[in-house]
Amino acid sequence: MVVRPTTGMAMVRRGAPLEPWTFERRDLRPDDVAVEVLWCGVCASDVAALQGVDEARLPLVVGHEFTGRVREVGDSVTWFAAGDLVAVGNVVDSCGVCEECRAGFENYCRVGPTPTYLGTDRRDGLPTQGAWSGEHVVRDRFAHALPAALDPAAAAPLMCAGITVWEALQHWSVGPGRSVGVVGLGGLGHLAVRFARALGARVTVFTTSAGKREAALALGADEVVVSSESDQMRAQGRLRARHRRR
Ligand SMILES: [Zn+2]
Ligand SMILES: [Zn+2]
User: Fold this and answer.
1) 173: left (phi > 0), else alpha (psi -120 to 50), else beta?
2) Which of 28, 59, 196, 237 shows the smallest number of beta carbons within 10 Å?
3) pLDDT per residue over 118-141, tens digit each?
4) pTM higher than 0.85 for the full model?
5) How many Å lie between the centroid of ligand 2 and the Cα of residue 171?
């Protein structure tokens, strides 16, 4: 079997700083794409994974929101060719046959989707390793064409933080005439503000830090409520009650 060596930043022993570690990606299956990782976000769950991982799962390479360039494709891949820009998130495989998978909700796969790292590959049983590495190999249907107009560095976090809040906005059909409250202006929150604003909704940010007011307004929030100020929270309650009575 031909394998594809690559180097990642790995935690080799619990609590140790990350260090370069050379490991092998699988040889391409007919429906695989090999992606040269260009950019990968740093997600809070990467940090949590590194802090909580069992010794038995080490070495561990994290990273599950990345953009890159296709290096090579498997024999039956028709959607991508070498050189294409792609983006990949936190799911690299799923059962493909359950109700959720067939509806395009592979992240809700009844059997459980395969995560980009700390998962077990469904076919070879080997642990998956993340994208803080030179190359990743994924099933073609879990790579997404990256539009040329999107900056690949800025687009990488859209594959985790971005899609997490986007899904909620879509679920509630957020658009003009709707009001959205965003609790916390962190990695997910700031993207929620920008998406909701771009969709035409009125956006209120709830934050415990008064110091984030200017940043929230600059990102497009219509209103900022400092949630540790009880007067401001009470005023919101009255506003919502009035809104409901209408
Ligand atoms: Zn993430
Ligand atoms: Zn499934």
Assistant:
1) left
2) 237
3) 999 999 999 999 999 999 999 999
4) yes
5) 20
